[in-house]
Each structure stands twice: as structure tokens, then as C-alpha cells.
Amino acid sequence: MGDVEYKKGPGDQREQKVIPVPDITHVTAGPDDFLIVCCDGVVERNFTNEEVVAYARGQLEDGVTDLAVVASRIGDEALRRGSTDNISCLVVQFRDGTRDPSGLQFVPGPLYEQKSNFLKAYRAMIERAGMAPGAALA
């Protein structure tokens, strides 16, 4: 895998430059809490874990409700701060799943007609956004 020799260190695997031992924390999440799952490219330069969390919290407090937008902006900020590694980011909020459907937007993706479970979920998303299937696919 490309730079595997560079990443290996002498001795115990926990002394390698890149280690396979995850950081695991157990917490009780509340309705205003969120989780950020990101690769090291997000925090490799001048964007610490704490700064990433503060940045995401600021986006949410400023009224950004689309978590994909928050994740994308985190990636943009990592680039702005000098990241040269790959950047992946996912933001998860711990909510009960209910929200005002007036703020929902249906953005149609590719339609796979031969997959019945896919069609069922696709139709449910269209209906939840308050659209008729014909209008969503037009």
C-alpha cells in the first residue's frame, strides 16, 4: 500500500507513525450533541480536533441545518488551513428524527427501478418532502 514502510515504526504497533488502535470514548448524547467522523486529513495541519468541533458547532448555531453542508465546510476549512491529505467528514446529530417537513428538500439521485426496496425508500423520501412522484422525477 504505497507508503506502508514509512508508516511502520520499529517495535510495538502502538509506536508506529500510523496505528490501528482507535480512540474510543463512551458518552451519553443529548439532543444538541453531534458526532464528527473524519479522517486525519481534516486535522493534519492547523485544525485541531477541538477547533473542528467548535467550527461545526458554530455552523449549527448560525442556523445551518444541512449536515452535509457542515461536513463540506469542515473540509473546505481544512483545505484553507493547509491540509494536503485526503479529506472525508461525516457529521451526525442525535435527534429523535422528527422535524418540520417544510424545511426538507428532495434532491433526486439516480433511480434504480429494478430494486424494489430502493423504490420503496425513494418514494417515501419524495412523500416526506411533500412532493408527488411525477413532480420529483420531472
Can you tell me the residue ranges where pLDDT is under 50 for at least 5 consecutive residues? Answer: none
* Number of helical stretches of at least 4 residues: 5
User: Which secondary-structure class do the elements indicate?
Assistant: mainly alpha
* Amount of beta strand: 5-15%
Distance between the termini: 45 Å
Q: Walk across the major sheet and give the strand order.
A: 1-2
Biggest sheet, open or closed, and with what strands and sense? 2 strands, antiparallel
Observed structural traits:
138 residues; mainly alpha; two-stranded antiparallel ribbon; 2 strands; 7% strand; elongated
Structure description:
The chain is mainly alpha-helical and 138 residues long. The chain is built from five helices and two strands. It has a two-stranded antiparallel sheet with strand order 1-2. Helix 2 packs across helix 3. The longest helix has 14 residues. The chain starts with a helix and ends with a helix.
